[in-house]
Amino acid sequence: MGKLNPNKYFLYKKRFIIGYILLAISFLGLILLVPKLAPVGLSNAEMNSAITSQNLDVHSVFSGNLIDLPYHLLQKIVFKFFGITSYTIRIPSIIMGGLLGFLIVLLLNRWFKNNTAIIASIITVLSSSFLFLVSNGTPLIMIVFWPTLLLWVGSKVQGVKRPAPIWCFIFAIALFLSSFTPYMLYLVILILIYTVWHPHLRFTIKKLPRLPFFLVSAIILTGFGFMGYILLNHPDIIQPLLFSGNFKISGYFNNLKQAFLPFFSWHGVIESIFLAPQISLPATIIAIIGLISTFKGFFASRNSIAIFLILFTIVISGFNTDYAALLLLPFAILIAHGFRYIINKWFDLFPENPYAKLFGVIPITFFLFTMITSDLSHFISGYRYAAPVANQFNSDFTITLSNLKPGDSILIDKENESTKPVAELVLAANNVKPIFRPDLKYNIIEPTHAFTTGETFYAFDKIGSKENTNFTIQKIITSSKSQNADRLYLYTVE
């Protein structure tokens, strides 16, 4: 009987190609299904993001509206073509999520062997924490996107004897655009300092042809010169770029606690937009193994980067609890380190046994399948049925769009704080003139409106008689996803 050679088997020989194909199909499928899997309704942050994007124009940019500018520009473009709906609000995050997933795969594939890279990629891009970023219609995903892009492009520049100028241009543009995301200025400054300090990077810069070097320098200087001009004229926006609007130094450590609680709370759900746990226990254990395994070669760039990103995430999370989402990137790197260590130890136990390579795939495949299905079920059911989390999302905007017809009247009370976000979003949607769908064109009325007998209108709140005018409820529209089921009222003026 001849010696077993796993490479003779088609499935084993083509396992990496098959794995990447299955990953791509699964990932694209989940991306397309995000509207169905996403939390029911919109958070206040999503509604505010949509309002900011719709109100964006040249004047507002020069007036200091720079926070998350690239994301809001993309969202504005989406609204221009498709209008404002619960789905279109999330399209920019879906687009950036697709790019981010692709970048994570490329980055891990560049730093690790195929077997390690594909396992870590599967766990990362099919995880509930990643799916949340993709389904969340806010710029939050950018805090993970920019470091991932910079790391991958940076590896294309640093890892070759003579880097192609195009990668230098992309790195410079990404570096500038990332500075519009809050707290990324800290990372930009650290990258620039590190580039000047590190001898290998200084040598890489010296090797660049003169023209690309000067063009890259011009891009960076022009970009930051523009930002500096805006900041000088509107110094009030410096704080949101460096700290959250309501940040107080006394609350820093409490912010840290609240930021990381969803990531390491395995006993149940908590009141947060993040579904606990954000990182599953098996993934966390593998990441810890990866962390321990990096200590031997700590000063190697790919080993120290994950630890640096964790420290960076801890620092900025004290300013804004939502930005703990950046943990996804260093966890992906540490998970790759962990699996590399486990696989190497497995092969060391059976260095001459071909069956070890062949049958070692079986428990890994079973482990991945169990983790992915469990994580996906956790995401879908958690955001629908875990009350402390589901209550963070409001379905009033969706209910309004599905019940009102063009020409219907709706009462907007701008002074009512409880309904203000959805009211402003309805106003923004009403002002959009999309290319690929009809205008909504509701008839917007205010409390000061002169009501006439027989007039009908919708309202978000119950209202009483006013100035001898009686309002009769004709219809109450409810939501099963809200603690207060009554969400929209149809009135007739008697």
Please specify the SSE layout and strand pairing.
Layout lengths: L9 H4 L1 H23 L6 H11 L3 H5 L6 H14 L3 H26 L2 H12 L2 H8 L6 H17 L6 H14 L5 H14 L1 H9 L2 H24 L4 H5 L9 H9 L20 H13 L7 H17 L10 H22 L4 H6 L1 H25 L1 H4 L5 H8 L5 E3 L8 H12 L11 E3 L10 E4 L11 E8 L7 E8 L1
Parallel strand pairs: 1-2, 1-3
Antiparallel strand pairs: 3-5, 4-5
Helix pairs in contact: 2-6, 2-7, 3-5, 3-23, 5-6, 6-7, 6-8, 6-9, 7-18, 8-20, 9-10, 10-13, 16-18, 17-18
Short description, anyone?
With 494 residues, this protein is mostly helical.
Protein traits:
single chain, 494 residues, 2 domains
Account of the 3D structure:
There is one protein chain. The protein is mainly α and 494 residues long. It has two domains: 6-390, no CATH class; 396-493. The protein is 61% helix and 5% strand. It contains 23 helices and five strands. The protein has helices at 10-13, 15-37, 44-54, 58-62, 69-82, 86-111, 114-125, 128-135, 142-158, 165-178, 184-197, 199-207, 210-233, 238-242, 252-260, 281-293, 301-317, 328-349, 354-359, 361-385, 387-390, 396-403, 420-431, and strands spanning 409-411, 443-445, 456-459, 471-478, 486-493. The chain has a five-stranded mixed sheet. The longest helix has 26 residues, at 86-111. The protein is globular.
Number of helices: 23
For the largest beta-sheet, the strand count, sense and barrel status come to: 5 strands, mixed
Q: What is the domain total for the residues?
A: 2
Q: Percent range for helical residues?
A: 55-70%
Shape: globular
Proportion of residues in extended strands: 5-15%
**Order of strands in the sheet with most strands:** 2-1-3-5-4
CA-atom Rg in angstroms: 26 Å
Q: Give a count of the beta strands, DSSP E runs of length 2 or more.
A: 5
